[in-house]
Amino acid sequence: MFKNTRFAGLAPGLFLASALMVAGAVAGDAPQPKLGPDAVPLTADHAYLTNAAAPDYWAFSAFVKPQFTTSACSIAAVTGALNGLRGLPPHAEDTVTTQPQMLDLVADADWAALSAEGGDGVKFEQLVSFTGKALKATGMEAYRTETLKPAADDAATLDAVRALLKANEASADDALLLYFNQGVVTGDWDGPHVSVIGAYDAEADRALILEVDQEWYIPYWTPTSVLLKAMLKPTSAEHGVLEGETGGLVHIVK
After folding, report:
1. What is the sign of the dihedral through the CA atoms of 136, 119, 42 and 150?
2. Could you tell me the sign of the dihedral formed by the alpha carbons of 225, 231, 236, 238, in that order?
3. With contact defined as beta carbons under 8 Å apart, do 182 and 45 qualify?
4. Does an H or E element contain 103, and which?
5. What predicted TM-score, i.e. pTM, was given to this entire model?
6. 99/96 Cα distance (integer angstroms)
7. What pLDDT, in 10s, does the model give residues 169-190?
8. Is 182 helix (H, G, I), strand (E, B) or coil?
9. For the chain, which terminus, N or C, has the lower number of CB atoms within 10 Å?
10. Which residue from 250, 149, 148 is spatially nearest to 197, judged by alpha carbons?
11. Calpha distance 67→182 (Å, rounded)
């Protein structure tokens, strides 16, 4: 998640939150639900993980950690995906790569600045580029990135998204990063975000998003049609250099 006043943790953000809560109380408004109707938390529905092999969930969920700054969703997602592809290191002296360690390995000043507290966050093409650099820096040159960047909300595009989700669900040998407008799914904050796809339930036609925005959320399911809309919605002007940015899927594959 990028540059959200909700996350500021500073006096202005706290003041705004307090003011809104007071205003709501005065107006008698009911509290806003944590998630809107298009997001179902994993704790409320885990039947698919019980009944299906769900190789991606079991490979990646243990490695997807909270983003270490409010602008670090891209580094959190990339680190979680690459750690999941490699699995638990075999030797006692080997560590599981952290987000700061990944930034050090990649040694890209732009990514570090964009991911720092208060940073602008990354554009979709930057996510693709930084993922490629992370693969090289960690000795994972056997992998490459492919992208699906939707341009229309139509049946053909939706079928293409479903096909990629289904292919990715077949094994844990590849990974999918999702660049999307988080609010389209959660019903709350309107802004660009990056996380990891954790599963695809083809029968229910929904995807599980392994959230790195763990101060506010846990993994949740969303319909594939909503996922497409979230990738297509342009970033608003309040996000500065990210204005107009749309999302897509970054496929890490051999």
Report:
1. negative
2. positive
3. no
4. helix 99-106
5. 0.90
6. 10
7. 999 999 999 999 999 999 998 8
8. helix
9. C
10. 250
11. 15
